[in-house]
Write a structure and sequence with these properties.
Length: 188
């Protein structure tokens, strides 16, 4: 998992002055937020004109006298922001009071593949239950060509005789899966 420490603007400038960012142009970046601050950070960054994705799922929460449906972030304390990572955008993101840091590896802001963000969005919007998946062991990489998840790329996993399509954001070490119907067509 990538190191997530908060660095000041001067330290950032000194570290990145002699080398470029990991990617040129707009890309998706993982942003680590304080606990339960995803909605606040999301609305503030969207107000600044940034595209923000906080995948959410609906879970059943037991109350003392009833059950209640809650919408919670799929990846607790993480969100994804699409931006061209320059000094101005970096500063706008990390200076927000609910942001811990932009996830970095070896001093670089590493983008999350757009295909991964697209796959996670499709999984959440398909209407099927999405489950957290404990790590991602090697498996057969597949792309769904027909069915409710057409175009989604992930790893085919089997558990208790059922087929699951697992997608992970390796940068933050979190993975999710959705159960596949028998009639879903796959291509390796």
């Amino acid at each position: 998992m990538a190191k997530t420490t908060r660095k000041g603007l001067n330290e950032f400038m000194m570290e990145t002055a002699d080398r470029p960012f990991a990617d040129e142009g707009p890309a998706w970046y993982a942003v680590h937020t304080r606990n339960q601050h995803e909605a606040l950070v999301e609305s503030d960054l969207q107000a600044r004109g940034l595209e923000v994705v906080v995948p959410r799922i609906t879970v059943r929460s037991r109350r003392r006298d009833r059950f209640k449906l809650l919408e919670i972030p799929l990846f607790s304390c993480y969100m994804f922001v699409s931006t061209e990572m320059d000094l101005e955008n970096y500063n706008a993101i990390v200076r927000h009071r609910g942001v811990v840091c932009i996830v970095r590896t070896k001093g670089y802001c590493i983008p999350v593949p757009a295909e991964t963000i697209s796959s996670i969005r499709s999984m959440v919007e398909c209407g099927k239950a999405v489950y957290p998946w404990p790590g991602l062991a090697p498996g057969r990489r597949v792309r769904v060509v027909a069915g409710f998840l057409a175009g989604v790329t992930g790893t085919l996993r089997r558990k208790s005789g059922k087929r699951f399509l697992a997608v992970g954001v390796e940068l933050i070490g979190q993975f999710v899966a959705v159960e596949l119907d028998k009639e879903v067509d796959l291509v390796s």
